[in-house]
Structures are given as C-alpha cells and as structure tokens.
Amino acid sequence: MGIGGCIGLIAVGAILTFAVDWQLSGVNLDVVGLIMMAVGVIGLAAYVSILKRRRVQPPAPGAPVVDIEETRTYR
After folding, report:
1. 3-class DSSP string for the chain
2. CA distance 10 to 1
3. Quick one: average pLDDT of 3-25?
4. Of 45, 54, 57, 67, which has the maximum CB count within 10 A?
C-alpha cells in the first residue's frame, strides 16, 4: 500500500467518523472510521520507514574507493 492508499484510508475513516450520521443496524460507523484511520496511520508510518531504509547514500566526494582485488594477496 503506497502513500496515496494510506492517506485515502485516513480520509475515508475521518469522513466516516466525523461527517456521516447514518445509522446501520449491527455496524458502528464511528468505530469503523477510527479503525480505518488507525490502519492508514500505521501503514503510512511503515511505508515511510521502509522508504527511508531503501535510500542509498552516495559516497562522500573524495572518499577513497577500495577495490577488493587490490586488498587480496595471493601466494
């Protein structure tokens, strides 16, 4: 689930919780909306956390590049 899906869940959950006054038998829309908002927030936090780890930082300019073949000594 991407950022858009998470934000969509949060938005739909907020609408169900705060803007809808329907009454359905056997379903509490306030609780459904709160659950959707919670899932959206948790999903957004997980997505951002994974995205943060996926970023690879380039080496600093001027940093020495070590070649593995040069460090091995053959006998």
Report:
1. CCHHHHHHHHHHHHHHHHHCCCCECCECHHHHHHHHHHHHHHHHHHHHHHHHHHCCCCCCCCCCCCCHHHHCCCC
2. 13
3. 92
4. 45
Q: What is the pLDDT of residue 11?
A: 96
- Tell me the percentage of the chain whose pLDDT exceeds 90: 49
**Cβ 9 vs Cβ 37: under 8 Å:** yes
- The CA distance from 69 to 75, in Å, is 14
The confidence score (pLDDT) of residue 13 equals 95
Q: What is the spatial distance between Cα 13 and Cα 27, in angstroms, rounded to a whole number?
A: 14
